[in-house]
Write a structure and sequence with these properties.
Blueprint (H helix, E strand, L loop, with lengths): L5 E6 L4 H14 L3 E5 L6 H7 L4 H6 L1 E3 L2 H5 L4 E5 L9 E2 L2 H12 L4 E5 L8 H4 L4 E3 L12 H16 L14 H17 L8 H15 L3 H20 L1
Parallel strand pairs: 1-2, 1-6, 2-3, 4-6, 4-7, 5-7
Length: 239
Amino acid sequence: MMLNQLVVVLLRPRDVRNIGAVVRAMKNTGVGQLRLVQPEHFDPADIGGIAHRSDDILAGMTIHASLDEALADCRFVLGTSARSHRDRPLHTDPRILAPDLLARAQAGPLALLFGPEDNGLDNDALDRCQALLRLPTDPHYPSLNLAQAVLLVLYELRQAAVTPAPAPIGPAPASGAELETCFAALEDALGALRFVKSGTATTTMRIVRRLILRAAPSSREVAVITAIAREVAKGRREG
């Protein structure tokens, strides 16, 4: 079952009670991998009081200093948001999306990224997502409690997982670490070419990121792009 390839990633969670409720939702749906990025200080023992018999998830839970570190081995990242974001692909029905996510999970770890309780995912986090999901709630009150959002997404994935396994989707896509290496090389090449002007580098790289993430390149394809970018930067500086 592809559920063991799903990774719940919480970015800067603020309240241990919400972490505990997320763990409970994971136990309910059979998803076992949890990664926390820069959480507020908490006592892991408090989670056990909220999510009973969750020792297996707590034993495997990891805490990370950065989002890139938490996503380094992930082959696909789905972000969640209560808001629309211009120029970013947005899905609004987790039931329709779930089979596609499970198919992608056959290539390797798939991250389900949830933002802080107060403001959700910021632009830097959204830049690392291949797709976004907005849960279908009443537009007059769209925000969900963190654990509610996790449970709704995991429920639909579990329901999809009990149907026949989806067909794999092509070659394994690049990992988060490979993509970030590629983006750094491209940014360096654009700088060497003086393609970007002062103050436009962030906007340009955000467009490049979206283009490459939308293409879902394989590890080999990303390696070729990275090598080209490095040769361009090297040739420009030596010339």
